[in-house]
User: Which sequence fits this backbone?
């Protein structure tokens, strides 16, 4: 199986079922954007409402189908899961990308700020994509003026291949010191 075929598969949290297929029909009917990834982003911002306040007990515990069914996204992790699932269901190979803010990596910080991006396969290359806002205007992973560093990729957060080659299950990590240990930070 090549990389494109691999990233068309479902992960533990990115399975394709009737709820996902109904959402995909809704996405395909959206008129405001020309590209399918753009329509998925529009779905994430206009159809799935933000959940405020966030429920931390749901963080990294819901499947794409559960997120869609609930009608709300808790943040970038939920959006990344739904984006990857809908893109794959429509035939677009999509990587779930875990990143950390560059300042969190270069400065000794108590809090590590992360963000979820995607990479979509188009015209023979993998292109960085922010699930809510779309294609990156700059090379790499940016959110506003904040640069993010790719830590790993996978079908979803349940099995993430790190840049150093290790594979981890991110949804079981609870503390910053656990992340630092896995990434071999002191």
Assistant:
């Amino acid at each position: 199986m090549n990389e494109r075929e691999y990233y068309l598969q479902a992960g533990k949290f990115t399975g394709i079922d009737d709820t996902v297929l109904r959402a995909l029909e809704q996405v395909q009917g959206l008129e405001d954007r020309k590209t399918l990834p753009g329509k998925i982003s529009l779905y994430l911002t206009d159809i799935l409402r933000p959940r405020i306040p966030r429920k931390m007990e749901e963080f990294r515990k819901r499947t794409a189908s559960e997120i869609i069914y609930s009608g709300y996204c808790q943040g970038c992790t939920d959006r990344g899961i739904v984006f990857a699932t809908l893109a794959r269901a429509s035939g677009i190979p999509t990587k779930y990308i875990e990143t950390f803010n560059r300042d969190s990596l270069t400065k000794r910080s108590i809090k590590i700020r992360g963000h979820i991006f995607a990479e979509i396969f188009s015209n023979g290359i993998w292109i960085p994509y922010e699930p809510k806002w779309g294609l990156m205007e700059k090379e790499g992973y940016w959110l506003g003026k904040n640069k993010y560093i790719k830590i790993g990729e996978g079908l979803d957060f349940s099995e993430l291949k790190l840049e150093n080659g290790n594979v981890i299950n991110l949804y079981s990590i609870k503390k910053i010191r656990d992340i630092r240990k896995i990434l071999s930070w002191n």
